[in-house]
From TrEMBL:
SMART domains xrefs: AARP2CN, DUF663
Name of the molecule in the record: Bms1-type G domain-containing protein
Region (Disordered): 1-52, 334-354, 364-383
GO biological process: one example: ribosome biogenesis
Biased composition (Basic and acidic residues): 28-42
Native source species: Brassica campestris (Field mustard)
Domain Bms1-type G: 79-239
Length: 790
């Protein structure tokens, strides 16, 4: 028999594989089940490892979700959920709503300001708080610990007035802090179903823009409606702001004191409550809101006073004894070797910066140099350091050399980089051209006499006043200051210096620091330190309870023994525990130390009073609150130097630098204005940006003068200075005009501080000559740090 009729062609030789050759390894759907993949051990092992890793990741995520659900579910192993009833207007009756909710959750009718109940019907434990209308501080503290905020609106009012001014202000504050899960309860709806649904839709439409998109609007007039709301609450997965999950905290339900005669004015503060968010170590430092940072002397784990009862024990729930509530199950005492020390401020050594006496070799070398008479490289002012010598202008004008001006009375000028702009070279070319053009007028300008040389002091002051009034409309710069007549400008502005370029001129961050900087701490690398601290806290949270004998698990009912608390503050906390939440939270490493914190903040639109720099304000940073006196500055991330602002301007974000306890970002910020007569007012909001003591904030001032005689690009300027010595002192600093000219001071004229200036263009007679001067600004240390001690 012959061959088969199937044609077989010779394979085409090519350097690149064809489409058919690339598809040879593929199989059809019919043959897919019969052809198996290679059984190499390395391939099989790699695939098995990938599958195993994916399985472990799924199990870890599932366990984390289940743990979070159990922790926030209000069950047996978790702390009770905190429900805050917040009125949107003054006409809302919270007392009746609070009674209805508590009666629904418990069999007894015990209604207090802060009530914790355990419901066996809903298998839920809850703490119900009623926010007082008009008390901003209490509403803020309740919102910081709330798991659910139920905003209550009354349908009796007009639809346009469901939220009053205080309610709108509180909503702005709560958004700045971070809203947890929210719900809106509408009260006082009509009984007729059609009108009720219509009015409910109108109220929801009016309030929808003020709340998150997932917020529910529910009626809350009858028991059945509240029952439906509690069912949704039980099934809902509550969410809280991220910053609350990083630190353990306790909301005190009982406050006590143990007075010790050995430490007068101090006592041991006892706070009892449920531990939330994370585990607490007895070796940690804790912060009591409004009081300060302290160490723990003991932590006691008590029997849960509100157990979640089942149906069999429901009848015996009322027979719980008070002695059982205080039963101590476990007691933890700190280890002196592991307990974190309470360090707030650095203690500087007064002799650390002492100048040492020169050695004999240094003295011999100085004598040798003096005998040899080595010429100086440059003429520098007396007492100029090596760093300051880099600021002095090296060039000496020929006119100054002829006049014999001494460079010992020159102000320090920061030159910056020589190549930062081509405008400097153009300006030098203009000056050289200027000398050639005006050579004929040089003798005339040097010999002219000023008109005010023969004036008395009173007449001279009147002339200055008239000149200032004539140019009052042009004073568009808020940094303009007047040079005093009775004090030399070189003494009045001795701390100021000029900058050739604000962007590129260097400024040593460690130069001439104030004494308060010796009391603070700084990090070499803030981001790395924060990462290590958070990693250490997470490691403690993930460790098993048996491996750590110094930790209390989340959800336990504990009693904290906080030692060395001021007796006055402890007495005040005991008196307000029934009306205001008392919060104690665990601090991360380094968070008790003082440093310079940088906040990005914006003025609240509803606050109309001015906020001045270094004014005393109350800062609420997360759970922490302290008093600070900030310095405001521009928020420009592209520069290493910031310009100080004398006031906090509305409508834009600014940077605030304060002395305060270290807190790792990001944390929300709420700023309150302190007033002796009225309650603190909401002034600004923002967030913690960084911890940077080396950030440079410069205060800028502008000295102004007015041209008296103008000759093309030359002008005789007066009223900027009042003494010729001041002119020589500030001669290295560049001057500029409001019409855009740049120039320099050439020489003083007369005895009243007038001066001759040269510019890079023609100067107008009505122009104003300005000079920029800078000095570094620092925040002010507050007299008392915490508001409860005020």
């Amino acid at each position: 028999m012959g061959r088969s009729g199937v044609q077989v062609n010779k394979a085409h030789k090519t350097r690149v594989s064809s489409k058919s050759s690339r598809n040879l390894h593929k199989t059809s759907l019919q043959d897919k089940g019969r052809i198996s993949k290679p059984e190499g051990n390395h391939v099989k092992g790699a695939k098995a490892a990938r599958l195993q890793r994916a399985k472990m990741v799924r199990e870890q995520k599932r366990a984390a979700v289940l743990k979070e659900k159990r922790a926030s579910g209000g069950g047996l192993s978790s702390a009770p959920r905190v429900i805050v009833l917040f009125p949107l207007s003054a006409s809302v009756d919270l007392n009746s709503l609070g009674e209805d909710v508590l009666k629904l959750l418990s069999t007894d009718g015990d209604v207090t300001f802060s009530s914790t109940v355990a419901s066996s019907e809903y298998k839920l434990r809850a703490t119900v708080l009623k926010a007082p209308h008009g008390d901003l501080l209490t509403c803020m503290e309740m919102a910081k610990v709330a798991d659910l905020i139920a905003f209550v609106a009354s349908a009796n009012e007009d639809i346009s007035s469901l939220i009053d001014s205080f309610g709108s202000q509180c909503l702005s504050v709560l958004r700045s802090i971070g809203l947890p899960s929210t719900a809106v309860l509408i009260r006082d709806l009509p009984s007729e179903l059609k009108k009720k649904n219509k009015l409910k839709k109108m109220c929801a439409s009016r309030l929808a823009s003020e709340f998150p998109k997932d917020c529910n609007f529910d009626p809350a007039d009858t028991r059945d409606e509240l029952h439906q709301f509690m069912g949704l609450l039980k099934a809902q997965r509550l969410s809280v702001p991220h910053w609350r999950k990083q630190r353990p905290y306790v909301v005190a339900q009982k406050v006590g004191m143990l007075v010790d005669d050995t430490t007068p004015g101090k006592c041991t503060l006892l706070l009892s409550g449920y531990l939330r968010a994370r585990k607490l170590s007895v070796n940690q430092l804790v912060h009591v809101t409004g009081v300060g940072d302290f160490q723990l002397s003991k932590v006691e784990v008590l029997k849960d006073p509100f157990p979640l009862l089942n149906e069999r024990r429901k009848q015996n729930s009322m027979e719980l004894d008070d002695s059982h509530d205080e039963e101590v199950l476990r007691s933890l005492v700190p280890d002196p070797m592991k307990q974190e020390p309470l360090v707030t401020e650095n203690t500087p050594d007064p002799l650390e910066g002492e100048q040492t006496w020169p050695t004999e070799a240094e003295m011999a070398e100085a004598d040798r140099n003096q005998k040899q008479g080595k010429p100086k490289k440059r003429s520098l002012p007396r007492g100029t350091s090596e760093y300051q010598a880099a600021w002095i202008i090296d060039e000496i004008d020929e006119e100054d050399s002829d006049n014999g001006d001494s460079y010992d009375d020159r102000m320090v000028l920061d030159r910056g980089e020589d190549h930062y702009s081509n405008q400097d070279q153009d300006f030098e070319d203009d000056k050289e051209t200027l000398y050639v053009q005006d050579m004929d007028n040089e003798t005339h300008n040097d010999s002219e006499m000023m008109d005010d040389e023969t004036l008395t002091r009173e007449q001279y002051e009147d002339q200055i006043k008239k000149s200032k009034e004539a140019h009052a409309e042009d004073e568009e710069f808020p940094d303009e200051v007047e040079t005093p007549i009775d004090q030399p400008a070189r003494k009045r502005f001795a701390k100021y210096r000029g900058l050739k370029s604000f962007r590129t001129s260097p400024w040593d961050p460690n130069e001439s620091l104030p004494q308060d900087y010796a009391r603070i701490f700084a990090f070499d690398n803030v981001a790395r330190t924060q990462k290590l601290v958070l990693k250490q806290a997470l490691k403690m949270e993930e460790e098993e309870e048996e491996s750590r004998d110094d930790c209390v698990p989340t959800g336990s009912y504990v009693r904290l023994h906080i030692k060395e608390v001021p007796l006055v503050a402890a007495s005040k906390l005991s008196s307000i525990v029934s009306t205001k939440p008392i919060i104690a939270f665990g601090l991360l490493q380094h968070e008790s130390k003082m440093s310079v914190l940088r906040f990005s903040l914006k003025k609240y639109d509803g606050y109309e009073d001015p906020i001045k720099t270094k004014e005393e304000l109350m800062f609420h940073v997360g759970f922490r609150q302290f008093v600070a006196r900030p310095v405001f500055s521009t928020d420009n991330i592209s520069l290493d130097k910031q310009v100080m602002e004398r006031f906090l301007h509305p409508g834009r974000f600014s940077l605030a630098s304060v002395y305060g306890p270290i807190s790792f970002p990001s944390l929300p910020l709420v700023v309150l204005k302190i007033s002796d007569a009225d309650a603190p007012a909401f002034a600004a909001f923002g967030s913690l940006k960084s911890i940077e003591p080396s950030k440079i904030v410069l205060k800028k001032i502008i000295l102004t003068g007015y041209p008296q005689r103008v000759s093309k690009m030359k002008a005789s300027v007066r009223y900027m200075f009042h003494q010729p010595e001041d002119v020589r002192w500030f001669k290295p600093v560049e001057v500029w005009t409001k019409c855009g000219r740049r120039g320099r001071v050439k020489e003083p004229l007369g005895t009243h501080g007038a001066m001759k200036c040269i510019f890079n263009g023609v100067v107008q007679q009505h122009d104003v000559v300005c000079m920029n001067l800078y000095k570094r600004a620092y925040p002010k240390w507050p007299e008392r740090m915490y508001p409860q001690l005020l």
